[in-house]
Design brief:
The complex is a heterodimer of chains A (598) and B (446). By secondary structure, chain A is α/β, with parallel strands linked by helices. Chain A is built from 23 helices and 17 strands. In chain A, the strands form 3 sheets. In chain A, strands 3, 4, 5, 6, 7, 8, 9 and 10 form an 8-stranded mixed β-sheet that branches. Chain A has a 7-stranded mixed β-sheet with strand order 11-12-13-14-15-16-17. Classes of the chains: A alpha/beta (598), B alpha+beta (446).
Chain lengths: 598, 446
């Protein structure tokens, strides 16, 4: 080390400095994760997240409202409820008084009405500064009243959950709040209204085991701790160290309990989209606040009404307009399926470059919002599902998803759904039924996953339940076979009012290789078997199993997707118009009869 | 006046500020990264505080750590130098909140001049001539093509938050624009985190001439003559001169007055630089205003006899400017060469390393601002500038001769430098005749 010896010091000071610098309180905050000092204003501008490591700060109720609801639209409900001390717990009243004055909050939750993207909603926000957002009688009462009032006013409810659980100081009265709030959620749900629960850090204990986990849609913030028993309690009980990420939002999503993890900067936008996808916003011109609604969705009632689009005439017009356009572009698309033998089609249906469910979803629908999980044990990535708009109408779309390369295929289990995948699909269909939304399924699977875990969790039961429940769904259901239609695994998404097939898609009781092997003891005769089995779209249409064959304009791949979509769009519109105008009972009846005939 | 001042910077500018403070009797606090334990500024200051690891993001750019150091050492003021946090309005604001004087303009001014699109708008409103171009941000290549049609090719694409040549491209045709717009936008997003771009007319072979200004808190604003910084490589200045000899005294006076008007338009306080592009007919256009001390400030100091760093500190302490415009006299000619640790043979790649031997020139009218000493190891994490060699002569001829001689005395071993490249510039007839525009290096030396 080189050290330079400079002569320093001995300054002449004429006057003593009077000002001493100091960091005023509140200028900086410490990141809860990386422990770095942060400039508070930047943290606030950054949605209360650390601009050094990205971790989230817990947000007070007021700041949460500022981030999510439209400016000055919040009106508090039930601000002052009488405080009680059922156990006469010493010091409890003083503690509450002190917290009230420090946080300027009446209790650990704030409830009220607000506009979100111009859409009226009931909103509740828990605040962890108030006894860790714990639920005593007042919290339970406020939440219950909020649900009751929302039910009466036919408003959706959005709750930002953050709580340590039930409030110990109030004893059994606190426990009862779990049942009370859950019952209020039930009534709100029975009225056909939407409840979105947003799980923030931390959502634990009795709150998780009541209203937090009961949303029609459950969103979570990245990294939020979500669980019933706290990690420390679990560790002490089982005497083991818990793995990294246990009980975090991402873990909960993998376990199938969280629909989507949404970053704070996208939260408001996502909520607005969800409200619109559930038919809220501009139900009639007067209801939404003027100038507030961004692109309002079609109201729920419209889904059932036939509108101008969707007649046979419209399809003809759309087709000829498109043919003319293609001709101008020097192309001559033909609707006539190309002659190919069955085995060739089998091979095409399995091609790695073939379009997948997400390709069709991306091309045909707008604003697709994927929802994860079966709310039971897993999020099966072999099945994707969610909400989207089709030409302005909300629809539920579900598809079996294959990968385009090995890595993706491992993630998607080669398009072979597990029981959890079918259960996710059914859950989404039930959600669609509640909100009167048509269901469109894309089928592309070699078959239901055949494996140990699949059997343990009831693959047969999952498929069977889908067949039964789908038969009675009170909304239109359309299934489109886009690739392989492998047996029961495909049927579990195809108990529909109509089944369509892409020109080179297949649908069969088992693979031609299997057929040849079982019946002829020679799997090499697969080609012959394929011809024999009548598993192609044209054969199945002739046999009456399928209503429409969709031309692929060559083969279904990225280049032909726009053509296929142009062909599908007017037909989809016609399907939605025709079936959307039917009574719910008639829809189920038509589906029943469709299979009754077979 | 301040008792103690913290320098939130490193390298030769930190040393330069420490020297000014020593002369003024102000105690100094250096901050340094783990890579700068042995840096000259660390050793020369009265106190030194380590503020983090080598990466600038975790040390010289971390305003919380720097403010903590200032509070812990009871420094009343912070001089940000150039680069790093010098043009960060949030930092200026945070200093104020902590009762620390930020030596520079206030946060509002930094912000308004830092956003180029906004700065341009302000200047247009103040009647300052600007280069024809779009007044609105351009979002995509298609829009850019439409706007370029109206302005006329060639055009320049610039990042709204840009600087240092990043996110900047010239296009002569629409095809070229479409292609370059996208790369420039990507670059801007990566470098500055914002992809807002704007377009302007590309002035062919212009000169980059800037005016140094000083403004105190009492409403006095002065201009200190011009600097010609046309010799640039990839928008990085290499050689600077004062005053600019390519324009008439009349034009220089007009530019000075315009710069003062620009500064007044935003209520500017402290030292600043108004940059102009000057075309062949001596027409000048406002480019941008730099709200900090600049690398090339010594050439102005040499021809005016003023100490700009001391002026900055005095202004920040609330003192009045000690002179009026009439007192400002520009005498002789000064030239600065930036000696960098870089390899001209390999696309000027920075060449960190240990300086095994060092001899720097001196003599009448020769000034060296540097932060190197024999045995010093140039760390790879920061700017590669090692030495600023500045000469002052009675006219440009004498200054050129002095620079030529002084450069010849520079012996700097252990790292590669651009000294030979500087020689090539000095010896080039176009430069010697004072004909170099901003395209000089691109046109003649590459």
């Amino acid at each position: 080390m080189s050290v330079l010896h400079f002569r320093k010091g001995n300054y002449i000071s004429l006057s003593r400095g009077e000002r001493r610098p100091n960091v005023p309180d509140g200028l900086f905050v410490k990141c809860p994760s990386c422990r770095e000092a942060l400039y508070k204003e930047d943290v606030a501008a950054n949605h209360y997240s650390c601009y050094k490591c990205g971790a989230y700060f817990r947000v007070s109720a007021g700041n949460r409202l500022r981030m999510v609801v439209d400016r000055k639209s919040f009106r508090a409900w039930d601000e002052e409820l009488a405080q009680e001390n059922p156990l006469s717990y010493p010091g409890y009243e003083e503690k509450l008084r002190e917290l009230k004055s420090r946080t300027h909050l009446p209790e650990a939750v704030v409830t009220g009405s607000a506009l979100i993207g111009g859409i009226p909603a009931a909103v509740g926000v828990c605040d962890t500064r108030f006894l860790m957002g714990s639920m005593g009688r007042q919290v339970g009462e406020k939440i219950t009243r909020a649900f009751e009032r929302a039910t009466a006013e036919r408003k959706p409810v959005i709750l930002f959950c953050a709580s340590g659980g039930a409030r110990m100081q109030e004893g059994l009265a606190s426990l009862m709040q779990m049942a009370k709030t859950a019952a209020a959620v039930k009534r709100h749900s029975e009225a056909g209204l939407l409840y979105i629960s947003v799980l923030t850090d931390p959502t634990t204990g009795g709150v998780t085991a009541s209203f937090a986990m009961l949303g029609d849609v459950i969103l979570a913030e990245p990294g939020a701790l979500i669980g019933f028993a706290g990690p420390r309690v679990i560790e002490q009980t089982i005497g083991q160290k818990l793995p990294e990420g246990f009980q975090r939002a991402e873990f909960l999503q993998e376990c199938g309990f969280v629909d989507a993890i949404v970053r704070r900067e996208e939260l408001k936008e996502t909520l607005v989209k969800l409200l619109r996808l559930h038919g809220y916003g501009k139900t009639d011109a007067g209801q939404a606040a003027p100038g507030q609604a961004e692109k309002p969705g079609k109201p729920a009632e419209d889904i059932r009404k036939a509108d101008s689009a969707g007649t046979a005439e419209d399809i003809r017009k759309a087709d000829s307009a498109w043919t003319a356009e293609a001709r101008r572009g020097g192309r001559l698309p033909s609707y006539e399926p190309e002659p190919r033998d069955a085995w060739e089609r089998v091979k095409l249906s399995r091609m790695g470059s073939r379009l997948t469910s997400l390709d069709y979803i991306g091309e045909l629908f707008q604003e697709f919002l994927e929802l994860h999980g079966d709310r039971g044990s897993k999020d099966d990535e072999a099945v994707v599902g969610g909400l989207a708009f089709f030409e302005g109408r909300p629809v539920t779309v579900i598809g079996v998803q294959k990968g385009k390369n090995t890595k993706e295929n491992i993630r998607r289990n080669f398009g072979m759904p597990s029981p959890e995948g079918y259960r996710k699909a059914l859950r989404l269909m039930k959600e669609a039924e509640k909100f009167g939304r048509p269901v469109i399924c894309f089928v592309d699977t070699p078959g239901a996953y055949c494996g140990l875990e699949a059997e343990e969790r009831g693959q047969g039961e999952a498929i069977a339940r889908n067949l039964m429940e789908m038969s009675a769904l009170r909304v239109p259901v359309l299934s489109i076979f886009i690739g392989e239609g492998g047996s029961g695994g495909a049927l579990a998404l195809a108990v529909a009012n109509q089944v369509w097939m892409l020109e080179n898609a297949t649908y069969s009781i088992l693979s031609p290789e299997g057929f040849a092997s079982i019946l002829w003891k020679d799997s090499r005769r697969a080609r012959e078997a394929a011809g024999f089995m009548g598993m192609t779209a044209d054969a199945l249409k002739k046999a009456g199993f399928v209503e429409e064959v969709i031309p692929e304009f060559g083969t279904a791949k990225a280049e032909t997707l726009p053509d296929i979509a142009k062909y599908l769009r007017p037909r989809l519109a016609a399907f939605l118009a025709q079936y959307g105008s039917m009574e719910p009972e008639a829809l189920a009846e038509q589906r029943y009869e469709r299979f009754r005939r077979m | 006046m301040f008792q103690k001042l913290l320098i939130a910077n490193r390298g030769e500018i930190a040393v330069r500020i420490i020297r000014a403070c020593r002369e003024m009797g102000i105690r100094t606090v250096a901050v340094y990264s783990e890579a700068d334990r042995e840096a000259l500024h660390t050793q020369l200051a009265d106190e030194a505080v380590c503020i983090g690891p080598a990466l600038a993001k975790e040390s010289y750019l971390d305003m919380e750590r720097i403010l903590s150091a200032a509070v812990a050492t009871h420094a009343e003021a912070i001089h940000p130098g150039f680069g790093f946090l010098s043009e960060n309005s949030r930092f200026a604001q945070a200093c104020g909140r902590c009762g620390i004087t930020f030596i520079g303009p206030d946060a509002r001014m930094i912000q308004s001049m830092g956003n180029k699109a906004q700065a341009r708008k302000t200047m247009v409103e103040a009647g300052i001539p600007v280069i024809p171009g779009t007044r609105e941000p351009v979002q995509d290549a298609e829009e850019a093509a439409a706007r370029a049609e109206a302005i006329g090719y060639p055009v320049m694409v610039k990042a709204a938050l840009g600087g240092g040549g990043k996110g900047m491209r010239t296009a002569w045709t629409q095809e070229e624009l479409t292609e370059k717009f996208q790369t420039a936008q990507l670059e801007a997003k990566a470098a500055f985190g914002g992809g807002t771009m704007y377009l302007e007319k590309y002035v062919q072979s212009p000169r980059h001439v800037e005016v140094q200004i000083l403004a105190d808190r009492h409403g006095h604003t002065l201009y200190l003559g011009t600097r010609d910084c046309s010799v640039q490589r990839g928008h990085q200045k290499v050689v600077e001169e004062a005053p600019c000899q390519a324009i008439s005294q009349e034009t220089a006076r007009k530019m000075g007055e315009t710069a003062v008007r620009a500064a007044r338009a935003v209520g500017y306080v402290n030292a600043g630089t108004v940059e102009f592009l000057v075309d062949k007919d001596e027409k000048f256009y406002f480019m941008e205003m730099n709200t900090r001390i600049q690398v090339e400030h010594p050439v102005t100091e040499m021809v005016t006899g003023l100490d700009l760093i001391k002026e900055q500190i005095r202004i920040a302490a609330g003192e009045k400017l000690s002179l009026s415009q009439e007192d400002v006299a520009v005498g002789g000619h000064a030239i600065e060469c930036r000696i960098n640790a870089e390899d001209p043979e390999r696309k000027f790649l920075p060449c960190p390393g240990t300086i095994s031997y060092l001899y720097l020139p001196g003599g009448c009218g020769v000034r060296v601002d540097s932060a190197v000493y024999p045995g010093y190891t140039v760390p790879p994490y920061y700017d590669s500038m090692l030495v600023k060699l500045i000469v002052h002569g009675k006219d440009r001829q004498e200054a050129l001769a002095k620079m030529h001689s002084a450069l010849g005395e520079v012996v700097l071993e252990g790292v590669k430098t651009n000294v030979d490249f500087l020689y090539r510039i000095l010896e080039h007839p176009v430069f010697r005749e004072g004909q170099a525009g901003t395209d000089f290096i691109e046109k003649y030396l590459q």
